[in-house]
Structure formats: C-alpha cells, structure tokens
Target: Transcriptional regulator
Amino acid sequence: MPRRSDCPISNVLDHVGDKWSLLILRDLMFFAKHSYSELQNSDERIASNILSARLTQLEKDGLIQKRTDPNDKRKRVYALTKAGKDMLPILLEMIAWSGVHDPNTNAPKTLLQRIRHDRTALIDELRQQSSGT
Model:
C-alpha cells in the first residue's frame, strides 16, 4: 500500500485504521482467540468477508502470522508477531481513555488501575500471555 504521507499517525492508521483490525488485535492479545471461528464469534460479529480481508491485510502488514494448528494440521491459527505485540501500549491507552470518558465501558476497574499505576508490569505480563497459541 502506498504511503499517503510521512506522518507517523497516518502510517499507523494505514495499518490499523479501521475498527475491525483493532478488534482482531484485541482478541488475539487479550482473549487468546487464535482460530478464524473464534475471531468470527466475537461479540461484534464481524462478517466473514471482512474478517478474511482484515486477516490477510494484517498478515501482509506483518502484525500477525498464520500458522498450521499444532492440534489439527488441516486448520490454521493466527498469532501476533513482534510488531503486533508492539501495538499493546496503544490498545492499553485506548482502554484507559475509554475508562475515563465512557461511563458504560466494560473495562475492569482493576485493569484500569493497573494501566494507571503498574503499566510496565502489566505490559510485560500481557506480552507473555500473548506469546502462546
């Protein structure tokens, strides 16, 4: 995809500037979803054609990788790459913003407190959790 500009925010948005891409990263990072069907069954109910397109684009952009499922060689699973895991602080900031500005957010209070007071340890823990498939 050609760059629109050299602006760093524009660059990030070129990779994850739609809600579906961010929600896929969220599910891989926070909810240990790895298969196509697990991702499709998220609360937001992404359409299969959109999910397929976003997975392809995220893989092309180097944020996720598709692998053979170790438990069933006929299936594929998705995992975050290092670049995908590096999106963690951005997603945490989005959660923190929602915690302040959305009284109906379902972000757990303990998570919001950890983002504010124990961010580095939280990031380390979440990186470790998202390492396995």
Notes: The radius of gyration is 15 Å. The chain has a mean pLDDT of 92.
